Amino acid sequence: MVRRQILFPEFFARPTLKVARDILGKFLVREIGGREMAAMITEVEAYAGPQDLASHASRGKTPRTEVMFGKAGNWYVYLIYGMHHCLNVVTEKEGYPAAILVRGVEGVYGPGRVCKRFKINLLQNKKPSAKKTKLWVEDRRIKITPRDISRGPRIGVDYAGKWKDKKWRFYLA
DNA sequence: ACAAGGATACCT
DNA sequence: GGTATCCTTGTC
């Protein structure tokens, strides 16, 4: 039996780049129809702070981005290009807008594909990562060392000026 | 190479 | 009210 520990808000209420590294190797778990599906998180991107032009929150607090200013551990889900959902988890302390985009899990590469596979849509937006919401992150004691982690620039943010070059994408080889 | 698709933010 | 834009993907 694998030892499992659901991650609490405290895990997410830390510097975003640190959480981004730490969440690699953790498991995204979804309960659908009484059954659980899970996959190891393998690729993420950090979006941190009001200055980050790649972040939706750079334009301030709006109905959409309000959740990024809220409590760590809440989900931020949005629809992109009219057809794909992107799953983020809010980080840092309340009032500081930041989140981590889940770009890939084991066997599923691409933020839209992750949401499609895990049946994630706007219903999950602003809800906490917790068992009661049927969508959460848990630690299954997979050991990840710094050598396992690669980093590079974020995808699809060429409009973000100097922020586009920041190596805030982290992934397992 | 590029169309699809709809919510969002920011105009008039 | 109109419209440019978008943290993408699948098919062309």
Q: Which sequence of SSEs, written as H and E, runs from N to C?
A: EHHEEEEEEHEEE
Helical amount: 10-25%
Using DSSP, what is the number of strands?
Answer: 10
- Structural domain count: 1
Determine Rg (CA atoms, Å).
15 Å
Short characterization:
By secondary structure, the protein is mostly beta strands. It has helices at residues 9-12, 16-23, 111-117, and strands at residues 5-6, 27-32, 35-48, 75-80, 84-90, 98-105, 108-109, 135-139, 149-152, 169-172.
Please characterize this protein's 3D structure.
- The chain has 173 residues and is mainly beta.
- The protein has one domain: Methylpurine-DNA glycosylase (MPG) (3-methyladenine DNA Glycosylase, Chain A, Roll).
- It contains 3 helices and 10 strands, in the order βααββββββαβββ.
- The chain has helices spanning 9-12, 16-23, 111-117, and strands at residues 5-6, 27-32, 35-48, 75-80, 84-90, 98-105, 108-109, 135-139, 149-152, 169-172.
- Strands 1, 2, 3, 4, 5, 6, 7, 8, 9 and 10 form a 10-stranded antiparallel beta sheet that branches.
- The chain is globular and about 45 Å long.
- The mean pLDDT is 96.
- The structure holds a DNA duplex (12 and 12 nucleotides).
SSE layout and pairings?
Layout: E1 5-6, H1 9-12, H2 16-23, E2 27-32, E3 35-48, E4 75-80, E5 84-90, E6 98-105, E7 108-109, H3 111-117, E8 135-139, E9 149-152, E10 169-172
Antiparallel strand pairs: 1-8, 2-3, 2-8, 3-6, 3-10, 4-5, 5-6, 6-7, 9-10
The protein binds a DNA duplex (12 and 12 nucleotides) through residues 45, 47, 54-56, 59, 62-64, 78-84, 86, 88, 101, 103, 110-113, 122, 154-157, 159-160.
